[in-house]
Design brief:
mainly alpha, 8 helices, 82% helix
Length: 217
Amino acid sequence: MIHSWLLFLISSMLLCSSLMLIQSYITNVIKLLIIQNVLLSSYILTETIYAPSMEVFISLIITIGIKVILLPFLLWKLVQFLHLSGRIEPILNKPSLLLLASALILLALILGQQLVNSMLHRYISGFSLGLANAFVAVLIITFRRKTVTQVMGLLVLENSIFILAAAISTGFPWLIELGMSFDILMGFMIFTLFLIRIQQEHGSFQVQLFEKLKERI
């Protein structure tokens, strides 16, 4: 029963990532990221109830504090400050993105089945879904035009790493989660300053502008 619930949570996270891939508005992407972080918190909460430990409990507190509250708040403020409420169509059309995402999810499931002899059978499904979520996160980073949504793709990728680590081990040390969360937070803050600089210089957030900055440097 617990295992089925955990798989449902991971599957729901994968669904959020797939929906983030095809959204046309940044605000919708942020909402889906918040939902995914809440699902991740529910995953850790379930693990805490099923196998209580101080490490998992501290990891739950860190996840709720940073991923569910702090980072979404900063993202909302960034979107409002830079007036990024317009449409943000992906580089590829939506049907092509969904087809590519489906192919990568299928690939992740096939790769997971190749690990039958190297890990417990009950962990294979969680590992496969976590790997699929990581693949979709890479698609978000690669095929979104705005750098803000690419930053959100990095956050989705970090969630996938958590799920993968939980699937291949009996736990996830809270100190590692703390370090990863603060790395993401600091990277987000630095990237925000970089985005503001691009907005001041060029008045746009198109990825092609990075090439212009590179040439200037």
